[in-house]
Amino acid sequence: MGQGARKQLAELLDDSERRGDFSTRVEMPAHALRIEVDGVGELPLPLRAPVTRKLIAQARQARFGLGEQTLADTSVRDTWEITPDRITLGGPDWQRTLSGVLDAVRTALGLPPTTVLRAEPHALLVYGKGQFFLPHQDSEKDDSMVGTLVVSLPSHHTGGELVVEHAGRSITYRASRERLTFAAFYADCRHEVKPVTSGYRITLTMNLLAERVRPADETGGGPVADLSHCLTEHFAQSAEQRYSYGHPKATPPNRLVYLLDHEYTQRGLGWDLLKGADATRAALLRQAAGQAGCEAVLALAEVRETWDAVPPYDRYDYYGDVEHFDDCEDEECEGECLLDPDGEPGAERRRSGDFSDYELGDLIDDEITLGWWTRPDGNGGEQISLPVPYAEVCASTDNKDLTPYQSEYEGYMGNYGNTLDRWYRRAAVVLWPRQRSFAARAEAGSEGALRELQGHLDTGELELARTRARSLAPFWKHQGSGAAAAPLFTAALRVAVGLGEADTAAMLLAPFGVETLSERHAPDLAEVAAQYGRTWARGAVGNWFGPVGAYTGADRATWLESLPGLCAVLRAADGDGDAVATPLVEEAWQATEERLTGWLGIGREPERRAGMERLGTTLAHILRAAGPETADTLTTALRGLPDTALECLLPALRTAARRPAAVRDGTPVGRAFRSLADHCEARLTAAVARPVRAADDWSLAPAGTCRSGCDLCPDLDAFLTSRTRRDMEWPLAKDRRHHIHSRIDLADLPVSHTTRRQGRPYTLVLTKTNAVFTGEQATRVRAETDLAWLREKWPRPRG
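User: That's the sequence. What structure does it adopt?
Assistant: Structure tokens below.
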């Protein structure tokens, strides 16, 4: 039944009166426009070649956007561009003409009659013979931008057609030789300019901006009653599972997500700014929601689909032999064009690009995630993270009928493959019954749900707030970390303070990462710790850090820089801020100590030293954040480490020396760094005082503990520790040779190891290199340099 209601709703909306199309074309007399360009003057229309060449002399190579970059690549976009600040538009009839064009465009694109369109010049483009622009999609450069208007100036040319496509349809526009040609289309439509075959194509591109000047009439029209019935049925029936076998009977769905056809940005998504059929369907759904007792919001969805797919060529013949690409130009190719980097057949040559010509088979998997939605009251929107299950989705247009913004094909790999992944960005109307509003919003990590809880607390409805807060437990999972999650964490923290219920408060705060915490949270953190106690606070901090050994990355390193300031504000706040500050430092030290232990076990000096140096900066931040007892504990642990730890301790001291006021002598932090400086000075002094290696001393330290307990490593260590032996020839089988190779490489020993491939077994030849002496000399020089720096920057107090 659930699927039937969704299917009927999608069909009703698909059959509803369509209002507008995705693009349109208007022609006007050329004399309506008077256009001047700096350095050229007024352009006579139609344009001739001599004037056009003057335009090119004033132009630059046009660029295009790719993600966050702006590029100039003539293999993608080959045209000349003049920026709008150098263009003047006018003429006695221009404003009247443009206003009439925009009215016609608004109607043709299906925008509401209450919408007023404006056209903002973007660039003057000149295409010569052979120039083009590959298929692309315009970015929405303004909050109110809904589309693009291309004004083709009359000129004698061939080719250069503008091709606009959307939802599987394609329209081709050709410019007039005598009149102004206006082509308008929505910003999310892919379009291209075909190569010019003769003459010059000159266009003025303009951004279409939409403004709503009065409330829209949202009454009447359409199958509202039928849609309302579908909504009621959808929310009353058990949610159907895609694969029902083995699944228990499901509860009714929490929401309905109806996918719209067009793409929108956060800034450009609004009930007033919907495009074409989206506007009609969304208005109908909004009216039906009111009749069915539902709330409706607009959302942005990220969609991924995985299809069984077949390329447009036969990759395998009947007997499974590999055949090469139809377009492979190598006459002697025997399938190598299908080989992966390891030479294995079957890996597809193209990993990403345009796969529109691939034949889709079965849909293997799909994922839909809502990442942003408007608030029910219409006041702005908010970031969310909400996976949408199969039973809550419907659409009148299938994803496969739209153009994905990214595709990746995985060729046959033996056990898997021949799959095409496609990603789409779609807008959606999201609906839920009003009585389930709190759960529907809270499940998405909505700040609005927490504001509702805070509202109950503010009005004294404590038990209602507690009941609703407890209802979050089944789905109040990972809410993110860092600045993006900070507003949600702030709201959750204040609710946790007001609930007065320790377990519920812990549940509300648990899903956030420690990178979310900042100084502005200190007062509430101190208050909540004072309310629920130190044991509770320690558990909360543990949740924020996550499991021991979890990957943290650059965000954690950046956050650790702020740890000293955060702990200082915590300890100064009313309440019990130290109950949070102390476990923050201890958890940070635990993770750092684990990494430090790992680096100490690395024998390869360049790799180890680089890692230890990075860790030294983190260690300095942790020590500066520590309280007196914790600082003493950390210092004692660090002083007990082997000499190799100086590769971490010295960078920590260098970091601290750049903030002398923060580590001044006499304070607990200052005493901690002073203790480490004295420890490093003693170790370096001892290293410098060691006798210089004798010219005939070839002894090395043992290779370390062999975890396998083999019978080879004692013989290896005997060779390494010998003062006189420089070479060793060792007949060994392949696996035993590899074991010795790895022992030498892991310990980064100055010993070459080669295999003489004569006889059986082959002979492993070990030779101690001159790095025995040069490496030790370099270590001595580095120790002397470090010691001199240490005595300058961390001098011992006098007396």
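Residues 751 and 768 are 4 Å apart (CA to CA).
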